[in-house]
Amino acid sequence: MTYTKIVVPSEGQRITVREGKLNVPDNPILLWIEGDGIGPDIMTASKRIWDAAVAAVYGGQRKISWMEIYAGEKAAGLFGGDYFPAESLNAIREFQVGIKGPLTTPIGGGFRSLNVTLRIDLDLYACVRPVKWFPGVPSPLRRPDQVDVVIYRENTEDVYAGVEYKAGSPEAMKVERFLKDEMGAKFFANSGIGIKPISEFGSKRLVRKAFVYALEHGRRSVTFMHKGNIQKYTEGAFMQWGYEVARQEYGDVTITEQQLWDEFGGVQPAGKLLVKDRIADIMFQQMLLRPSEYDVIATPNLNGDYLSDAVAAEVGGVGIAPGANIGDTMAIFEATHGTAPKYANQDKVNPGSLLLSGVMMLDYIGWGEAARAVEAAFTRTVADKIVTYDFARQMEGAHEARTSEFATAVIARL
Ligand code: NAP
Questions:
Q1: What is the structure's pLDDT at 108?
Q2: Contact assessment for residue 33 and residue 100, using Cβ atoms and an 8 Å cutoff
Q3: pLDDT band with cut points at 50, 70 and 90 for residue 128
Q4: How would you classify residue 37: left for phi > 0, otherwise alpha for psi between -120 and 50, otherwise beta?
Q5: Local confidence band at 100 (pLDDT 50, 70, 90 cut-offs)
Q6: Is 181 a catalytic residue?
Q7: pLDDT score of 115
Q8: pLDDT of 109 above 60
Q9: Cys staple from 75: which of 70, 275, 339, 387, with CB 3.0 to 4.6 Å?
Q10: pLDDT surpassing 70 at residue 382
Q11: Which among 36, 41, 277, 305 is annotated as catalytic?
Q12: If 0-12 CB within 10 Å is exposed, 13-18 middle and 19+ buried, where does residue 394 land?
């Protein structure tokens, strides 16, 4: 592949894919998108920490070769107004793994959200959001230490499929006529109409990813969160397809709640993953009141969107919640907050969300030792009460650090 603005680093090697598995060299080329607004501040700080951790852990044996690709305002400046140039998408297809800062979606007609473009065009169908508490991080819960979940949110269908018609438009009226005249549906005239497609294929591949993660990481349960009591053929079907995957593909290593009580007296046997489901509304309540009962959660797109931010708020908020969009092999890790433009270039905000997304990326490429080192140093820094403004305003006796100072403090604790 040839690129016009992107420069492929000469010293690094490509990550390759063989039989659906990543083959990661010791000097892999990893992609980075700087991001808009606070993006440059948090990306600079985080890259310093990841590089220092890799150097400290592998003593020069391994090294990341960073390759910048462009999206958002920086891309628009370089590519004549194009916010997501084709060569950036091509680079992701070629190099497989990367990390991005937050991106502005320009307001006004004709612009598709850059995040939606990424997810749909590259078929990054699993949005993965691990949420756990780090000691010292301010939380509204009495026992935030009980929160340790990984949310697998379906990323490509549901109401995000973009099948939506404005009230009164010819399209909406045509759909309305069809639904009323031919299908016998009843609803108010001149409604806006949205369609919610949820497929067996899309649901099963997402649920499969959640099972693989849960089994590889020794997790105790996978919960399907759904609204199947009302939306039987979409959310309810998601749950049923989930149980089908459990039974047909992981039957020897999973048990249902029914089996737990009928066959094991309520005591989960070693080596068996518990599969359960919860209706979305009670899930929100239980994640506040009994978070320790949940572990890996698989859910359709909209539920996952709401739940992941709500649960993140239990343990420190968007400033430290990491995330990833993962397909069959390609993956883009990302800060889950936006560009916070009022803080742009002030060296002020929390780099935690992007930093911990990088921890996920290091795990993804199999560099778990470096990932644990970053996580441990981050934990120690916060425990020492060296934090950015967002935590400092909620903590007594905190030392408020700039973004770059926070990074220096983390590196000192590697
Ligand atoms: P936002 O950028 O996430 O900022 C909302 C507030 O969250 C900030 O004012 C700040 O709160 C807090 N915050 C965000 N990041 C933080 C950090 N790293 N450290 C500490 N606090 C942080 O949301 P927004 O203002 O609604 O959106 C701004 C732009 O970002 C929009 O153009 C939107 O489209 C875009 N966006 C992009 C993504 C993405 O690329 N993934 C996601 C969401 C939004 P305080 O003011 O209380 O300090």
A1: 59
A2: yes
A3: very high
A4: left
A5: very high
A6: no
A7: 82
A8: no
A9: 70
A10: yes
A11: 305
A12: middle
pLDDT at position 110, please?
Answer: 57
> Against a cut of 0.85, is the pTM above it?
yes
The Cα 373–Cα 371 span in angstroms is 5
Give the mean pLDDT of the chain: 95
Ligand 1 centroid to Cα of residue 339, in Å, is 5
Q: Where are the beta strands (DSSP E) in 252-342?
A: 254-256, 273-279, 296-299, 322-326, 331-335
Nearest by Cα to 293 from 309, 304, 282: 282
CA of 77 to the centre of ligand 1 (A): 22
CA 365 to chain centre: 16
Q: Report d(CA 161, CA 325) in Å as an integer.
A: 16
Of the chain, the end-to-end C-alpha distance in Å amounts to 38
227 belongs to the catalytic site? yes
Residues 6 or more apart whose CB falls under 8 angstroms from that of 22 comprise 15, 16, 96, 97, 329, 364, 365, 366
d(CA 138, CA 390): 10
314-371 tens-digit pLDDT: 998 888 899 999 999 999 999 999 999 999 999 999 999 999 999 999 999 999 999 9
Asked if 45 and 347 touch (Cβ cutoff 8 Å), the reply is: no
> Average pLDDT in the 276-295 region?
96
37 neighbors 104 (Cβ within 8 angstroms)? yes
Distance (Å) from CA 260 to ligand 1 centroid: 43
> Beta strands 331-335 and 97-100: pairing type?
parallel
Give the C-alpha separation, 343 to 40, whole Å: 11
User: Which residue from 293, 361, 350 is spatially nearest to 323, judged by alpha carbons?
Assistant: 361
**E strand or H helix at 318:** none
| Atom from ligand 1 closest to the CA of residue 354 | 18
Provide the pLDDT for residue 120: 86
- Residue of 115, 339, 345, 393 to test ligand 1 pocket, by largest number of atoms within 8 Å of CB: 339
Model confidence band, residue 107 (pLDDT cutoffs 50, 70, 90): low
DSSP conformation class of 28: B
Compute, in angstroms, the gap from residue 146 CA to the centroid of ligand 1. Answer: 27
Query: Which residue's CA is minimally distant from atom 45 of ligand 1?
Result: 390
